[in-house]
Structures are given as structure tokens and as C-alpha cells.
Specification:
Two copies of one chain form a homodimer. Chain A has 243 residues and is of the alpha+beta class. In chain A, 19% of the residues lie in helices and 39% in strands. Chain A folds into two domains: 5-135, Roll (Thiol Ester Dehydrase, Chain A); 153-242, Hotdog Thioesterase (Thiol Ester Dehydrase, Chain A, Roll). In chain A, strand 4 (89-96) and strand 5 form a beta hairpin.
Chain lengths: 243, 243
């Protein structure tokens, strides 16, 4: 069984949006921070990964939101590196309230990138063993992401200095910020999000200007379809399930 | 003597920049969060302030940086509501490392705004007494902010959904993000900041597009001069002292 790792987290106002609820990009910032602490605790530090010439990249988040915690709430963040196959590592996250109710669950898919060749590398047992992660043969089948046919709206975002992390790439949580921001204040404050499925296809770098495009149509009125483009390159695709 | 209030804070990666140092806007997010906790602890909650028809606004930060803490560091954040006169409340913040060394100190000036008339209101003793804040007659004289003569560069920022706080105004920390972002990667990663003096003149709202303009000149080569404009309106002016 994969090792569980938990941390308590107090939610400050600046991780919330105008509704005083935890902002969706903050969910992934907090979650990834806790997974880094687990990695450090079992000795699989960034330096250890770099010693193989590798670096972690995130290829997908599948985020299920039951209820968002609020400013001032104390939550429990739990993670485990559930399983891995030749190329993909599957990590789960849960946010619980103080009474033990599940608020959010996330399945995140990681890959290891060869930093010199800029190609996906196969996962080495040495890296996953300390997490007691199960080696599986199967590659998990992902739900298809509904594509955009006729965009409802589009906005442009120039990468800001604080959008990039220590790899000099835009942090994955910023894609969530871009795609939700494009939807606008009215929908964000009048609807709640049940699920976000996002695939990361291509890194975005400092100096880039991306286009965040989305579609809401009558065929699937509760699902918005999103894409983050860097000129002709699809950097991310996502579906957001609303209620 | 004004009541001191302290909290410990662990710095996650997402409050840092590409150098793994605490980002300057994060300083003020963390500081204001701690001052809100003090206010709540003495019963001067937002609801209590609203019961007078008032709301807090920040008119100035004067931030002195000795050394920035890093990702993973545990810091102590201390604040006290030092003094107040007819219209201004002066609050101090300190960040210390675990050995007690001072990392950052801040003097922040607050006002109370009449929410209906949108005008500055006089400070009522009832609001400040629980902090044991000293009533002073004097209005502190502020250092002059060097103005821009010939802008070196300018960037435009459209307010994002997560830039606004529960007042539906842009959070004060975002002005710092805008003005530093305009300076660009090269300077931000090759120089360190010793002091930022920023005056907030006018609120910025959702939907606004601001211009962040700065000047670096040979007359004062270690001081950059900044202004955040909303068309013709000066929303903030700042000087950043570099080394």
C-alpha cells in the first residue's frame, strides 16, 4: 500500500476568491506543496531526481470538488503516490474538513522528463519505491476532453514574473487561473465547480503571451470547454463541470 | 504600549519567486493576514467595523527588507497597531527568522472609509482601544516619492478575478506585483530590494485595465520610480530601492 502523508493547513484570505472560498488554483498550489513535503520526507528530493538528469512534470489534474473550504478554515491535506507504470505516476490528493468530511479529491498524473533531451523518460523503480507506490502494467484511460467548436470568448495573458516557478516554466496552477478568469466574474460568483479535468500538453515560458479560449454551448450547458494556446500550440485543454 | 501579536508561518513554494525567496507581494499578504487575526482576537472584526458604516483602507506601505526568507523557512510574523491620529492608523510588522534575526520590517498606514459617502472618516477611539494603540496628535511626515520624468518602460494589466478581494477592489498586494513585474526578469533576479515605499491613491476595480510605468535613470540609479495609472488617474506611486 502506498504511504499516506498528511498536513494540516489553515486557509488565509489570500488563498481565497471574492466569495471567501478557497480559490481553485490554490487547491493545486497547496496539494503540490504537500506532495513536495512527502517527497522530501522519504528522500526523493528535487536534487535526487536531478541526479538522474530528470525532472517532474504534471500532465493531468482531475479535480473533484464536493465543497470548497472558506477563509479561516483548518483543513487536512492528504496525499499518496498510488501507482506507476512505464511512463506515468498517479498521485491522489484529498482535502478534508476538521470533521473528516471530504471536500476535494484530485488525481494527478506526473511524468519524468529527461532534462537534456527534453523527452519523457521511463519511470525508475528507485524513484518510486520510497513511496511504496504500486507498479502497474496498465495505462489509465483518461476521459476524453470535449473540444472547442465555436469559442464563446477569448482573453490574452502575458506571463508575469510570479507565474513562473523554479524551472522557469509557468506553474501548472496558473493555467487554472487563466482558464477560469476568462469565464468572468458573473459565472464564477453565481455557479460552483464540480469537476475540472485538465491536460497539460506544453510548457509556457517567461515572456510568452497565451490565449485562453472557452466555449459554453447548449449541447453540454453544464460543461465549459477550454484551451490555452501559445500561438498555434495547444498548451493545455480542459473541461469544467458547473452546477 | 500597543499589544503585540505574533504567528509562526511556514513558507510554501508558491509564496516564493523563481529565486526560491519569499516574493515581495507575499510579504504583505502574510502580514495583512496576521493583522486580521489580531483584529479578530481583540473583537475588532470586519463586521464590527462595518457596524459603524466603515471599512479599512491602506494608504501606504513602507517596507524595509534586510534579507528575504526562502521556501521551507519558518518565520515569525509580529504586528502591533502602534498609534493613531485623527485620520491615520499606523501599524508595524516584523518578520523574523527562527534565530530571531529581523528579516523585514514594515510601517503600514490605514484609514477608515465611510462606505456610503466613499470619504475618509475620523478614527474612533472605540475601534483602536482594544489594540492599546496610542492616540497621537501628530501626523507622521512621509518621505517624498520621487516622480517619473521620462518612463523607461510601461506594461498594461487587466485586473484578473483573483486580483480582487472581498471588497471587490484589487488587493493592495497586487499593485506590488504589477510594479515589480514591469521591471522584468533580468533585474528582479540580479538585484535585491532594500526598501519599497508605496502610496495608494485610488482603488482599482474588476474590469479595469491599468498601466504600470517605471523609470530608472542615472540621477538616482539605485531607485526606480513607479506609477500605476488607470487612464488619467494615479492609483499608486512608489519608489523601489535596489542594491
Amino acid at each position: 500500500m502506498a504511504k499516506k502523508f498528511s498536513e494540516m493547513h489553515n486557509i488565509p484570505y489570500y488563498e481565497c476568491d471574492v466569495t471567501k472560498q478557497l480559490a481553485v488554483p490554490s487547491i493545486m498550489k497547496i496539494a503540490i506543496s504537500v506532495s513536495e513535503h512527502q517527497s522530501d520526507s522519504v528522500g526523493v528530493t528535487d536534487d535526487f531526481i536531478h541526479s538522474f538528469g530528470l525532472g517532474w512534470i504534471i500532465t493531468q489534474h482531475d479535480i473533484y470538488i464536493n465543497r470548497l473550504p472558506k477563509e479561516g478554515d483548518k483543513i487536512k491535506v492528504t496525499t499518496l503516490a498510488e501507482s506507476y507504470n512505464k511512463y506515468f505516476c498517479y498521485r491522489r490528493f484529498w482535502l478534508h474538513d476538521e470533521e473528516g468530511n471530504e471536500l476535494v479529491s484530485v488525481l494527478t498524473t506526473f511524468c519524468l522528463m529527461d532534462l537534456e533531451q527534453r523527452k519523457i523518460a521511463s519511470v525508475q523503480e528507485e524513484i518510486m519505491a520510497p513511496f511504496h507506490s504500486e507498479h502497474i502494467k496498465k495505462i489509465k484511460r483518461n476521459d476524453a476532453i470535449l473540444p472547442i467548436n465555436a469559442p464563446t470568448d477569448e482573453r490574452e495573458y502575458r506571463v508575469r514574473y510570479l507565474d513562473i516557478d523554479t524551472n522557469r516554466h509557468v506553474n501548472n496552477s496558473v493555467y487554472l487561473e487563466w482558464l477560469l478568469d476568462t469565464v468572468g466574474y458573473e459565472r464564477l460568483t453565481s455557479h460552483s465547480i464540480q469537476r475540472i479535468l485538465i491536460n497539460f500538453n506544453k510548457e509556457v515560458r517567461y515572456g510568452d503571451v497565451v490565449q485562453s479560449r472557452y466555449e459554453l454551448n447548449t449541447e453540454t450547458p453544464d460543461i465549459s470547454r477550454h484551451v490555452i494556446m501559445n500561438d498555434d500550440i495547444v498548451c493545455a485543454e480542459a473541461n469544467v463541470y458547473w452546477k
